[in-house]
Amino acid sequence: MPSPKRQKTVRDSGMFKDNSDSDSSDSAFESVRPHKSDKSDKSESKKSNDDNGKNASSPNNPAAPAPHDYICIHRPYFDVEGAEWLAWSTNPSSNLDKDEIYSKRFKPIFEQEVKDGIYKAPPSEHKDHKWVMMWGAWLKTDLLRRKSTYCEPNLFGMNLYNDWRGWGMHEIAENMMKEFDRAFRSKGDERIKKMWVVVSAVGLWLNGDDHLDAIIQCEDGDTTFEIIDLLGCSLLTALAAIEAADELKPDSCFLDLALVIAYYLELSHDVFAYGIEDKCLAWHKEAAEYFKKGNLNPNKGLFATKLRIEKIEEVGASEEETDDEDEKVTTAPETPAKGTAEDPVTIDDNVANKENKEPEATLNTRVSPPLTPKVKRKQNPGGVHNEDTDPWKWAQKFAAYKKNHHPKVGGQHYDITKMSSIDREAVAFDGKDPLAHIPKKALKGNLLDIA
Length: 451
What we know:
With 451 residues, the chain is mainly α. Helices cover 50% and strands 1% of the residues. Helix 3 (77-90) crosses helix 4. It is globular and about 60 Å long. Residues 1-65, 315-390 are annotated as: Disordered.
């Protein structure tokens, strides 16, 4: 058996950003398909690194976009890889290995996009380019990518628990849910956009590399299920707000509406592929409903969005059919009304008219659960009016999660870059701090980039 390739570690890299648009606050975050390759973010991260080092405003360098401005981004590697896999599933002769997918499929696309000046350009300049994202969300995705490496002991040559990275990924996801909760509870015109920044960033991040693998393979399966449920609930909560603002439509001001829903539909498919059929995935049906209600184009999503929606509909129809059959078997038939030609059974005209009068008026075309009547509002301790702003019970679910995991939700306990130098030395294979050569400011500001 050939020896495995030596894994690149932080000692080999030593890369950090001299200047970064990413959040650098003291807190952790203020701000069945083939296994996703670790090549997925190489070109994107290099471009992001180069860009982040040049973003300081100057006469020759324009200021970075505003956090909620949309920019064009590169097509993610995982979508290219997935499309290739889908093509192979229907035509095995077209099979390419991972290196060939990168060199023959992804790299040419990336280089052409660079040549065309697509990255970070306003979407209005490239109207046929569907890969767009809010600038703040893009920076957050890049931060999440870096943070995901900070809890991987193998990259630092350390001897820590087997599930250290899994717990670290849970911690990162919790931090993002805390950030979403702050956006959910905020007020003002930017509230929905703040929620959308988190939802879109998390959706793109989890589809890249092996991030979802690391979360699912953690030994704490119960917490994994809870996190997946919360992630789905955050999506539905943001979509409900978008629907209420009359922006659930093809020409929405949220330009990546179809794309972000597609991220989560793909995630739900991948989670199911692990054999997880828990209720934590129930949200994917409503996500598909929002997609259809908004009359969104599957071609504006990922490589398999149309297939994912069709599968959800197919399973839903099958379940309804099974429920109908069960009801026929278990429900005792009512005694039929008897009548004869001489003594027919009659129905009161008022009853008949009541049953048939304007039936279309009772139809509910909204995807979000109906809100309670406008009576005197009871405000919950968090300051959110659940009856009017929280149809998917986000506040209730997140409060329950925090209670179950009290006293610690989120943080940076598993972030190796935030450990003391002495602690890192104690668990390093060679007894030396692998980050001794990295400036403390770079570690504190999450600027280390293990490329």
